[in-house]
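Support reply, case 0932

Customer input (verbatim):
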Amino acid sequence: MSTSEQTRGRVYPLAACAVMTALLCVLAPFAIPVGPVPVTLATLLIYLSVELLGWKWGAASVAAYLLLGLAGLPVFSGYQGGAGPLFGPTGGYLVGYLPMAIIAGWCALAAQGRSPVASAAIRLGGMILGTAALYALGTAWFCALSGNPLHTALAVCVAPFVPFDLVKMAAAVSIGVPVRRRLRQAHFLP
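Our regenerated output:
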């Protein structure tokens, strides 16, 4: 392997991670209020990130997004930043992006090389499992910090989001595979 190929193999995934982090920072703040937790494009971008970059770089993109928000950049929903949104009652849903990315990314990796139907089913299953982890962490965090009972938290913080997240998952599975294929053909991704 030539030096330029080695450099490309290290630099291109890092650049793609930076691009996905930037997209997450720019698009995630746009929010549709549905209750204490708004609907954003963050989960769609995270699903796409792990589809395109794999679990390691996808999770790195999410970690960078969270750190930028913690540092005070207004990248969280409603253009908020700092420790307040991250450590407040709904902060568990932000922190839950990390396990969601890892789980969905692992499943996307396991889906590679399988038939298109099996691949889509595994990818979608990974997104569902990852989102379930996000909901579990976020809901437990919300209940602990807000004092609301579980049934209230589920009704307010989970149920309204399930249809939106299912649509985002279907979009990510549909968009992710062809975009990844094209990026590989362009030698931008390994």
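We compared this against your earlier run and they match. Two observations from our side: DSSP finds eight helices and no strands in the chain. The chain has a mean pLDDT of 92. Please reopen the case if you see a mismatch on your end.
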